[in-house]
Amino acid sequence: MTSAVPIPDLAATTLQLVDAPSESYSEAAAVELVRRLVPGAPVYDDGEVLLYGEGPVVLAGHLDTVPAQRNIPGRIENGVVHGLGASDMKSGVAVMIELARAGVPGRYLFFTREEVPVTESPLPALFATGLLADAELAVVLEPTDNELHAGCLGNLQARVTFDGESAHSARPWTGVNAIHELVRGLEPLVGLEPEDVELDGLVYREVVSAVRVAGGIASNVVPAHASAELNMRFVRPGAEERLRALLPDGAIEVLSLSPPAPPALRNARVARLRELVPTVKPKQAWTPVAQFAEQGIDAINFGPGATAYAHRVDEQVPVANLERSFAVLREFLS
What we know:
alpha+beta, Alpha-Beta Plaits, 2 domains, about 30% strand
């Protein structure tokens, strides 16, 4: 691959984005920075979503980050950009901005509130306008280490509650300890192994984890209620039914449900992208490719972010990753 056009200072743009505060629900500074950096007027701008350009391919990136861990402001050191969101996904956004500034044809979509439940996403308002109805492919610049990560897992968040009967802790036999019921009730989950599911030659792993536990009101009271929050990642339909069958002794409340996305490897434009990026893996996570898939738009993940450093206190991305993503997407879109 040749590089006739000089590569811009992607590291500097990434650092500028890192230093723009943009934890979920507080992305205004990052939105304004994108407005300043991307040339031309947006096709759509509701304060949460910015859409620029035209063409059959949409490049998409979210502006928000997880909460800071004393990793802002960022820095550039030894060929690496460090700081909050450097990997997930200020680096991908920087590549998008610099492609737009270089005049590379395409649609550029920037949006907020991705690192929160999908019910908070601002994308449905954009989809409702029909502005993306004719898109042939969306490339979501999530961290993939410059590999193609096809499809994504669904994400089900639920709470399972076990009831008992309160009593004095000196006479526990007069009541029913809900925490003990929870421990017994979660045994099927504890023994559950990841289940591999193959789609289009890619193997996704379905898993269920208990991620938070609550119960008890005082040290001298046998608790009457105890609950655990559960996270289930899946690709097959019927996830909620399988979760209820796994834990029949608890009362399950679904808190949020984000569907999976198919690999979309049969899309002609994905086939062209695969010529430039031969490594294809399943996306063992949920990403906004699922939101595009719900709209009938094929989508795939490809971005410079380092997956091993996403959401970490030492979050970082090599500058070489940025340059590789820029070169690949410039050739793909041109």
